[in-house]
């Protein structure tokens, strides 16, 4: 039987050094895990638990759907889809010949009403002159009556005393009666002239009312004429153009839309009700767009006064039927911070929003920065 061969020096050295190496590797791995857990726990305690995020967020902006306010044919398209426009810039022009003719007709009606007012005022002036003339006739008739009374009295006394003829007495008496009748006629004519003045003044008021109506019709006609040119209500980007040259459009028919520029857009993030405990306006927000992963900075502007469900078309009524509790979401409006390039924004894009709800929003947020802050605090 052969005797066992002793191990070589290399084998003996390997068997004695292998267990320490494994032990060192285990210790290193365990230490790394402990450090990662420690730093991770420190980051979560200092930063992570204050970060509220949601992917239920979207870019929003005011979009004006421009429609025709009058009936007409599309005469000219002045912009193309996706073209940048300025406030007040013409976008679409409708045929204006019919509306210009209506404006001219309204202007003629206003001129006619003005002429009617001038005529009535002239008649009033003429009537006042007639009243003055009638008053003068009354004064003249009154003087003639006084003279006739004096003559009739004098000649009547002479006839009774025998110094005058009866014929003269009767003649002067007749003159007296004619003078009294003339005075009564003059007074009646003056009263008739005065009675005509309120009639003319009422006609003047009617003419002024017609002028006001004609002026309103002219203003309406000018407005309708201006509506043949559809303008941009604000600076933005034109889109969704449905108008075509020659098409007949009706009032209320959508023709084109104008969206606000990216600089005036905002983000609406729908956070769960459990995430709103520490959230308030002014807190910083990090926005990550799904389109290209662009990252922007923002600020919490306001929180909606009610949950999104209550603003829906059919709000829930939990007092009826079977009740199932569902975590509600509250819309939070986020304004973009100035000094950024928001050209990548488009209304409707999906965004991931993360709100920093810490008391000190300027505190470090990174993993290593939080660890450094913890070490510095420990010192």
Automatic annotation (TrEMBL):
Cross-referenced SUPFAM superfamilies: HlyD-like secretion proteins
Domain Multidrug resistance protein MdtA-like barrel-sandwich hybrid: 63-258
Coiled coil residues, start to end: 190-224
InterPro entries: MdtA-like_BSH (IPR058625), MFP (IPR050739)
Pfam family, one: BSH_RND
Keywords, sorted A to Z: Coiled coil, Membrane, Transmembrane, Transmembrane helix
Keyword Coiled coil: yes
Segments traversing the membrane: 24-45
Protein name: HlyD family secretion protein
Species of the source: Plastoroseomonas hellenica
